[in-house]
Structures are given as structure tokens and as C-alpha cells.
Amino acid sequence: MNSRRPRRPRAPWTLRRRLVLAVVGLLALVSVSIGLVSVAILRASLLDGLDQQLSAAADRSRAVLEGHRDLDDGAPALFLPTAEMILNGPAQPPGTLALVFDGTSISSGYTTVSGDIAALSTHQKEILARQMQPSRAVSIDLGGTVGDYRIMADVNRDGVLYLVGLPLAEVNGTAAQLAIIVGVVSLAGIVVVAVLALWIVRLALRPLQRVTETAARVAELPLDRGEVSLIDRVPAADTDQRTEVGRVGSALNRMLDHVDVALETRQASERKVRQFVADASHELRTPLASIRGYSELTRRTGQDLPPDTLHSLGRIESESIRMTGLVEDLLLLARLDEGRDLERGPVDLTSLLVDVVSDAHAAGPERVLGLDLPDEPVHVVGDAARLHQVFANLLANARIHTPPETTTEVALSVLGDRAVVTVTDDGPGIPENLQATLFERFARGDSSRFRGTGSTGLGLAIARAVVTAHHGDLTVDSHPGRTCFRVSLPLG
Ligand SMILES: Nc1ncnc2c1ncn2[C@@H]1O[C@H](COP(=O)(O)OP(=O)(O)OP(=O)(O)O)[C@@H](O)[C@H]1O
Ligand SMILES: [Mg+2]
Description:
It is a single chain. About 55% of the residues lie in helices and about 15% in strands. By secondary structure, it is α+β, with helices and mostly antiparallel strands. The protein folds into 3 domains: about 15-175, Beta-Lactamase (2-Layer Sandwich); about 225-340, Helix Hairpins, CATH 1.10.287; about 345-490, 2-Layer Sandwich (Heat Shock Protein 90), CATH 3.30.565. The structure holds adenosine-5'-triphosphate and magnesium ion (MG).
């Protein structure tokens, strides 16, 4: 089994961090380059100076060796040139190193700071012996306490090979000192620049922050429903076309203008549709009442009419009653959408529920119906008739859309500052595919149509609209064996 946890994707770097790091990185690169170049130039120039001293020392050494030979009567066979002759010669600075090879033996040594002559180790001599060809000055590491040397080998007119060297310690020390100074100054510079860059970038990105905040505020508005207008805009200072952020800000403002116009148009067309539905429903009421009235009148008075005609008249009457209900529902919905047609007064939910339940009991006396009320009366502020309609619909649903043996329980409780009414039944539940659209207009289960209960699918849409207009919530939790509608309303 693979027990490794999946790696979380790394959070992307913010623009601020990227800019600051880029500035700091570039500065570090430039500082290192400048440091390296200046140290290299300084070292080359110091080496140049040292090489001149070295060639002067070599000239002196040659003169010393030849001077000694001339003192020895000019008999080259008997004359033994040594390194000490060079080291004891005039004007040789402390640290001078010398090695002399007369064809048979090697002598070597170097002067210490105190002016004494110290011997070289065998290994050091071996290293130097490898350089014993006349050549230009070279740098060499002799290790131990002797360290780095600049050396130059030459041969005098008697064929004696000699080598002189001067310590590189001073050149190296000066170069190292410069490297340290450049390093420290660069580091301090980088820290200062990082702080300044952080501050400047933050300042530069502040307008972007304001644009983002505006966009975020607008994004939170519920644009899909109701009357909303977009008054939020990016401040004028952040919409200057000459800056990048300004262009973003002004583009956002233009987009908001467009969205605002589109919203206006949508709201206007919605208003028109609502007005049309309200007007149509209103206009339909009168002819419907006439149809109902005339059919009822004819049915009552025309006793000698054939039974078929009487039956048809009865159907006309019942359908016109159903249609009146439908038209009333549509009118109510249109008015609720407009945000009007709600009375506001104290409503005693306890007695309202008692009424609703006794009505429901009268409508279906064979049904088991329970009511659970708190000891104290519960009051809300709102429209008693509309709230009555909400609960009546919930109980009618529990009666119409469930088999006869189903039991229904109505309960009222107080939760914090809210009154909560639940209507629960142990029926077959609301079909899964209907639940998502249950509170939409004309949403019905198939069974309702088959049963010809006269259901329209507007009941729950109205219930939710009424409850929402009361600043409450209507929710449902349904599965086979339990359906619970929950209405929560702010306490009065
Ligand atoms: N308690 C319930 N048990 C099972 N199904 C339900 C229940 N309540 C509602 N439904 C389903 O939800 C649908 C929508 O209910 P809604 O009250 O909106 O409309 P309706 O009852 O069909 O018609 P109307 O209430 O307008 O006369 C119903 O058709 C029914 O299929
Ligand atoms: Mg209903």
C-alpha cells in the first residue's frame, strides 16, 4: 500500500514577492559581478607591481652571484654559488626566497620577517626544482608556513640556474580585504534595496488592491435575482488610462456599466412579465366568476335538463373553481414578486396552527394528524392569512401526496430568536428528481397528475415566496419514510 500522502500543489508566488525577489536577485548578480571584476583587476595590478619587484630582485641576484665569482679570482670551477649569497645581498626585502643550482648541488632558503635565513623543506625544494627553467614569473603554493610565492627562474652567464621568489601574502591579503569590503557593502545594499523594493512594490500594487476589492464586493452581490443595481465602481484615481492598473480599473468600470445596463434591462423585462401576469390574472377573475355563476345558476334552476348536460355543467363549475384558484395563485405570486401585498401585524402562530390543523382534520378526517405546541404562545410579525396559506398547503401536500395510512405531525418550537414550524409525515417521500426544483413554479410529482387531484405545482412556490417575504426560510428534508418541511420565521 502506498502510504505517501499526496503532495499539495505549491501556492503560486504573489506578484509582490516575485518583483521583490527579481530586484534582489538582479542586484545580487550585479554586485557579485562587480565584486569579482574589481578584485580581479586589483589583484592583476598588484601582481604586476610584484613582478616588477621580482625582476629587480632577479637582476640584483644575478649581480650578487657574478660579483662573488669575480672576487674568487674568476675561477669558475672553484666558485660555489649559494642561495645565501642572494639572500644576504643588498636591498633584498624580507620574505625573499632563493634557490641556486650550480650543476651539481642545490642550495636554497628564504628570509624571515626578522631577517634570519630559514631553510626550505625537501618537498618545497622539489616543488621549486620543477620550475627551474628560465621563464616569466609564476605563482606557486609552497604550503606550510611559507605559503604562496611569486617566483622567477633565470640562468647567469656562467650557466648557474637561480630562482628568486617574493611572497604573495600581501597581494592575496589586499585582494581578500577588497573582496570582504565589496561583499559586506553589497549585502548591506541588498538588504536596504529589499526593504525599499518591498515598500515600493506594496505602494505600487495598492491601486490593484483597491480594484480587486471593488471586483470582490460586486462578485458578492446576488445578481441573478431581484432588483439589484451596481453602484460600486473603482475610484476615479485608479482609472487613469496611462497606467497599467488604471487600464484594469477603467476596464472593470466599463464592464460594471455594461452589467448594470444589462441588469436594468432584465429587471425591466421581469417587471413587464410580472405586470402582465398580474394584469392577466386580474382580468381573468371577472369572466371566471361569471362562468362559475352562470353554470351554477343553470345547474340549480334547470332541473329538467338531461343528466349529461347537468354533469357537463357541474364539470364547468368545478373547473372554473379550479381555474379561479390558479389565477388567484398567479396573481399572488406576481404581487409577492413585486414585494407587495403583505399585511404586517402580530400573528399568534400557536392559534394559527391550531386553526390550520383543525381545517386539515376536517378535510381528511380519516388521517392521523398530530400537533405539538409549546406552553407559551409564540408570536411573529406578518400576514396571518398568507402564513395560514403556507401551513395549509404543507398540510394539504401531506394529505394529497401520501397514501391514506400516512401520519403527519406539526410541531412548533422556539430556537433562539426564531420560531420554527415543522410539518413531518412518514409517507413515501418526494421523488429525488423533483427535490432540486421543488420550490419552483409548476413543479409537481408525476403521481399528482395521475391522481387528478387538481394540483398545480404552485403551492410550494407560493409558500417559499411568502416565507421569504417574512424574512424567513422554508427548507425540506425528504427521503422515503420521512418528509419534513421546516419553516423558520423571526420572532415578533
Ligand atoms: N409531503 C409530501 N410527500 C410527497 N410528495 C410531496 C409532498 N409535498 C409535496 N410533494 C410533491 O411536491 C410537488 C409540489 O408540491 P406543491 O405544493 O408545490 O404543488 P402541488 O401540491 O402539486 O399543487 P398545489 O399545491 O399548487 O395545489 C407535489 O406535486 C408533490 O409531488
Ligand atoms: Mg400543494
